[in-house]
Amino acid sequence: MNSDPISISIIMPAYNEEMSILDATRQNMETFSSFGLDYEIIIVNDQSTDQTGVIGNELAEMYEVIRCYHHKTNLGPGGAFKTGISYARKEYVIFVPFDNALHPEDLEPYLPRLGICDIVVGVRVERVGYSNFVRFASFFYNRIMIPLLFNIGISDVNWIQVYRRSHFINGTLSIGDSKIFFLVEILVKAKQNKLIIAEIPSKMRRRLYGMPTCSRFSVMWRTFWDAIKFFWQIHRGRRL
User: Fold this and answer.
1) What is the number of other CB atoms lying within 10 angstroms of the CB of residue 178?
2) Which of 7, 15, 32, 223 has its CA 20 to 30 A from that of 42?
3) How far apart are CA 207 and CA 98, in angstroms?
4) Mean of the per-residue pLDDT values of the chain
């Protein structure tokens, strides 16, 4: 039996997160260390206009497990996650937003599925800190629009997910140029390639600083249109 610890790269896209970057990064370090995991943290500064990049560099100098990379243009969470994957060194990669650093009880349900599954998808039990409009938009997107367009059988497509990194290296999985919709792109391609996907309950925490990217109307609008465009790509027979 292989007794080696789980190897995982934590990718944290950062856009104007100067208020939360220290606490969130250290919380993730504490959580992943508590399970004895072989981990690294990759911060991707997505052209922040505040001190996020400076603090990210300072964290990378302080801790050997942290590296920080910088975008010259803003590419959104999808572009930042793609950059993170390109620099990742571990067997698994996980997308962790700065507004939801993982506590031990959040990470624990994922761990038994790793080594068995190709992807582990967190399903939020409750949407925390959302306005009524954003709550409705999330319900429509996750429970009506995405099932109608893609029928992938996943009840929450927009939350924390863990992937086996080798599938990105060999081209089984890939990410386009979408900012938020990339999470669905990955799952659609995973279903097409018959990868093993597991869903686990996940807790969402209230954001302490700033506004979540996904709650901006412009981001929601683009995400909906990215879904429509991806649907047409599939049904026109274009290679994904």
Assistant:
1) 21
2) 223
3) 9
4) 89
